[in-house]
Specification:
Number of helices: 3
Strand content: 25-35%
Structural class: alpha+beta
Shape: globular
Number of strands: 9
């Protein structure tokens, strides 16, 4: 009986050491959710921030320069810092050449135009438009 009690602290110490080693080994494999605002080119507005991908590394925050990321005709804008999702192209407004849809997405962010559900747009100046008024404005512009 004495042998069991004498081994208990040793078994606990070994278990604790193994746990610390495992936790330390996992720390280098950090990931975080990369979020951005999807651009709707038909309505020229941005959805609210949503998860786009899970990327490696610690979360670096949302205080970086505005960028546009694109993959398979899906365009997003974000101020989230790198690392960016690996399968996305990345453009910024100060790049020499920029994807034209990304240029529109960055301009939309600057204007503050947010998609409102399926039918409308909330403009940065506080105005609201629905699909009918957007279509009418596009039609008027095409005839001018």
């Amino acid at each position: 009986m004495k042998t069991r009690l004498a081994c208990a602290p040793l078994a606990f110490a070994v278990s604790l050491a193994a746990f610390v080693v495992l936790v330390g080994a996992c720390k280098g494999d950090a990931t975080h959710i990369f979020s951005a605002r999807r651009f709707d080119p038909a309505r020229a507005c941005l959805d609210r921030y949503a998860a786009v991908d899970v990327v490696s590394g610690d979360d670096t925050g949302n205080a970086c320069a505005l960028v546009c990321i694109a993959n398979a005709n899906e365009y997003y804008v974000t101020r989230q810092c790198a690392p960016y999702p690996p399968l996305f192209g990345v453009w910024s407004s100060d790049a020499g050449t920029i994807d034209p849809v990304c240029a529109s997405a960055l301009a939309t962010y600057t204007r503050g135009d947010t998609c409102d559900g399926d039918a409308g747009v909330i403009h940065g100046d506080g105005g609201v438009a629905n699909d009918a008024s957007i279509a009418s404005d596009a039609s008027d512009a095409a005839t001018e």
